[in-house]
Amino acid sequence: MDHATGDEIDEVVSSYTYRILQQIQEQIPETGFEFYSDAVLGFGFLVTAILAAKRMSSSRSQGGAETTVVTAFYSLILLTASLRTIWFIVPGTVWSTNYTPHAVMAFDSANPDWLMQFLEILLVGAGSLCLFSIFILILVYWADILKKYFYPGARRSKPMLTFWC
Question: How does pLDDT run across 57-67, given as a tens digit for each residue?
Answer without folding.
Answer: 887 667 665 67
